[in-house]
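Forgive a beginner's question, but might I ask you for the amino acids of a protein and the tokens describing how it folds?
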Amino acid sequence: MTNKTQFYTGKGDRGDTARLGGKARLSKDSALIDTIGTLDEATCAIGMARAHVQEPLLKEALPEVQRRLYRLMSHISATSEQRERYTGLFDEDVTWLESLIEALQATVPQLKKFVLPGDSPAGAACHMARAIVRRAERRLVAFAETETGVRPPNLAFINRLSSLMFVAALREDSCARQQLTMACSKPRN
């Protein structure tokens, strides 16, 4: 059986690409493509975190976070004429993230010092995702300053997302410490 799907077109071999809904080509080093690329890195990093997390709430929520990031990428990728068709995110999406943050925040101990990433593989993956989401936020803010029509909830969502990934890292590290304590306190035969 042969694979009929072709995964390349060759159209971008000269360093340009098209916008969603647009015919004109733009350089692959444009602010738009840089922003979309950084958002893509963020969703990949969230996928890496998702592959490691143990918290059931995160296992359920992170794929939905990734789907919403794709809606955001479609919104900013669309031409101004197509942007109403690709609406991106809404206030409800931001509220949803805030409720996740609050639920996780209730399960982690109070912070008393700076957090050093690396207490657990899952926590480290969440911290890496958080840092990449912060970079994506900087790119999105810069892009929104030059491009009209980027809806405010899209900016708020990416800001809350870094907070979610921080609390997710704290939760995963806390779970890992609890498991280690339980494993270490078991009597040896």
Notes: The first helix runs from residue 31 to 52. The mean pLDDT is 88. The first strand starts at residue 16 and ends at 18.
